[in-house]
Amino acid sequence: MTNDKDVKVLLIDDEETLLEYLSKRLLREGFTVKATFSGEEAIQVAGDENFDVAVVDLKMPGIDGVETQKRLKKIQPFLQCIVLTGHGSVESALESGQQDAFKYCLKPIDYEALVETIREAYEKRNELLNAKFREKVEDISSSGLGARGIKRAINELRKTYGID
Amino acid sequence: MESTDSPQDQLKRVSQELLSNKIQLHQTTVFLQSILQNSNDLIFATDVDGVLVSFSKGGEKALGYTREELAGSFIRDLADDPLEFDKLTKASREKGSAVRLELPFRGKDGQTIHCDISLTDLTNTEGKTVGRVAICRDITHRKKLQEDLIQIDRLAEIGRIASGVAHEINNPLAIISEISGWAGAVVSDAKGLSEEDREELETAARRIGEQTDRCKAITLQLLSFARGSGPAIASFDIHSLIKKTVSFLEPHLKFKSIDIVLNFEDEALPIKSDPKMLEQVFVNLVSNAIYAVKEKGTDKGRIELKISRAGPNMEIMISDNGTGIPEGDQKKIFDLFYTTKPLGKGTGLGVPICRNIIKKLGGDISVESQEGTGTTFTVRIPV
Lengths: 164, 383
Fold this sequence. Notes:
Number of domains of chain B: 3
Number of strands of chain A: 5
Oligomer: heterodimer
Mean pLDDT of chain B: 85
Strand order of the largest sheet of chain B: 2-1-5-4-3
CATH topology of the largest domain in chain B: Heat Shock Protein 90
Largest sheet of chain A: 5 strands, parallel
Largest interface: A-B, 27 and 31 residues
């Protein structure tokens, strides 16, 4: 079972009041939450801090949701993005699909569904991360390093991927 | 010259002229009769008092009376407003002829037939009026079309206004929804509240949320009227559009055993149409299917989406094994604001919107349903 406290969520939406209450609710739910009000701000924040799941509004002034997602993924490749789209925006949603969004949620959002989707996105991120980790471990073990060398390399990997 | 003609020759010449006149007269009669028989217009002839003496097949067709039924009756009595017709007769008497646009007649079944009418006095060789001929063009169909167009225009305008309002209201609604959720959460953990007050406040917060959801459903539907403009045709893969639509609706499937079966190949199936409009159609129809299955309360809910090529069309069938639609209601579901859902659950806009859209895309939509067994909507759109 996911411990919500471990889930670091980055919220990006230009509707400030909405985001204020959404983050309050998610915080109370137990998630670790950071709210940002533009794509630019989110990208800046993501440079300093790691997140597991981002909830991105598709339509924003400045950098839009698709572009924000693209840039966030460049900074944090394992970050899972949930894209909020207005009704009838499947085309943009399909376009952002090329950037591998975890899921699209129709706006206005259904809170329960969003919480559930965030948890699923977190699971997905961990799976990807573990798979990548195992792959690296395989690489190391087949690399012909000595026992000590392997242990050191794996410890380094653990650090890189944040796995204990 | 003529004096050289013998009486026999003269007689012969006269009888030849007579024969040729007779033939001409016959031809003219046949000609006029064929006009009377074949014209779609209503052509009446009356005597000087306005008593019908003949009228055309077109008149029988439009009014529903046979020639025999009307023989001997006054033409003015067929008019919706006989006094109006009298005015026209008077004008014709004074000027020799008269024209009136959009004069309504009353048919045998009480139906109104709108006609453009022209009335002409018939005179004999001495210039005396012996009767009148009326030629009426049935414009009921055209008038109906015009009224429909005005109605469509009005609807589109209402739609534009409504969707503008809906759009503006959507954001505040989303905020109210979040705040009510937040208030509910705070109340449930608050210290120093009596259990009774806590329940009261929790219920209140939940109700605010529920009613906001109801508003959201309405604005969502109204917004679709905004796309009153023509379709924006693009080439896209219908399979992935449908998969995407179904994934949008997944939150509604939580905790229910409903199987959504996508009965089509995985590979892309390109189509030229308006993807936004079609998305709306599928969201509406699949939501309805989910609702019908939930209503039935079966634990073996099944919704199937099937796509196949039918001649120049793509055929998309959406079937469910839900409650079904009673036969008497099957036509009404296409009417605006008709809904079978309980108050607050349905807007009565979903299916009419679907039909509007499909019409705009040059296709058609039909429904087959059996109460208690399920419903299948079939959408056909040109590829």
